[in-house]
């Protein structure tokens, strides 16, 4: 029996919700073990995404398998950040960056609403909220928060951060290509 596009999309939404729920649990466990606020915020982000996966708009064009793997790897990568010994001052600076970064990314998620997707997909383009000012505010927010993790443990986390930024840039490029395609198709 072959699945329709609608059935396949619903299955994808639910499997995405399950993946994000698992990441939320792993983030929460990491928070319990490290007490770093970053992981608690990460857990709440992932739980928030579970809801959006179920309710989101269906993409008219979806990412290829390589882009999907890259997107989910990028979402899971923050779990690899290491804790280190920090002073009270550096802990405050790191926590400040966590809060600012996750605030920016959460506001971007709210702006996306049901157009959210982990992997690139052609959904309704968003041009309100933070998206009026910058194309990918969610990734900017993640980078701000993840800079806080470099303060926590500079040596291993700087390498993880560079990989993370590389994946964000690749995701942004794939999303931009889909949006250009949307703009081109809607003018014809």
Structure description:
The structure is a single chain. By secondary structure, this protein is mostly helical. The chain has a single domain (5-187), classed as Four Helix Bundle (Hemerythrin (Met), subunit A), CATH 1.20.120. It is 72% helix and 0% strand. The protein has 6 helices and no strands. It has helices at residues 5-34, 37-55, 65-76, 88-112, 137-152, 154-187. Helix 1 (5-34) runs antiparallel to helix 2 (37-55), helix 4 (88-112) packs antiparallel against helix 5 and helix 5 packs antiparallel against helix 6 (154-187). The longest helix is centred in the C-terminal third of the chain and has 34 residues, at 154-187. It is globular, with a radius of gyration of 17 Å. The relative contact order is 0.14.
Quick structural summary:
With 188 residues, the protein is an all-alpha fold.
Radius of gyration: 17 Å
Q: For this entry, what is the oligomeric state of its chains?
A: single chain
Helix and strand pattern? HHHHHH
Averaged pLDDT, please?
85
Q: Decide which structural class fits the backbone.
A: mainly alpha
Named CATH architecture: Up-down Bundle
CATH top level class name: Mainly Alpha
Strand content is under 5%
Q: How many domains would you count in the coordinates?
A: 1
Q: What share of the residues lie within helices?
A: over 70%
Q: Can you count the helices?
A: 6
> Per the principal axes of the C-alpha atoms, what is the gross shape?
globular
Biggest sheet, open or closed, and with what strands and sense?
none
N- and C-termini, Cα separation: 36 Å
CATH topology: Four Helix Bundle (Hemerythrin (Met), subunit A)
Unreliably modeled segments: 3-8
- Count the E strands: 0
């Amino acid at each position: 029996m072959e699945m329709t596009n609608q059935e396949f999309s619903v299955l994808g939404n639910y499997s995405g919700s399950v993946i994000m729920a698992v990441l939320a649990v792993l983030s929460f466990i990491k928070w319990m073990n490290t007490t770093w606020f970053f992981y608690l915020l990460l857990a709440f982000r992932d739980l928030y995404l579970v809801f959006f996966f179920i309710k989101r708009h269906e993409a008219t064009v979806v990412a290829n398998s390589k882009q999907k793997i890259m997107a989910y790897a990028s979402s899971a990568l923050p779990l690899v950040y290491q804790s280190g010994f920090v002073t009270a001052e550096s802990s405050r600076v790191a926590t400040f960056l966590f809060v600012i970064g996750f605030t920016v990314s959460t506001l971007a998620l709210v702006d996306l609403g049901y157009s959210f997707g982990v992997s690139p997909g052609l959904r309704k383009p968003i041009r309100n909220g933070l998206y009026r000012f910058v194309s990918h505010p969610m990734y900017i927010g993640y980078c701000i928060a993840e800079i806080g993790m470099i303060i926590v443990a500079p040596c291993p986390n700087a390498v993880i951060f560079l990989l993370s930024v590389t994946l964000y840039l690749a995701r942004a490029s794939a999303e931009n290509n889909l949006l250009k395609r949307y703009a081109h198709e809607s003018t014809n």
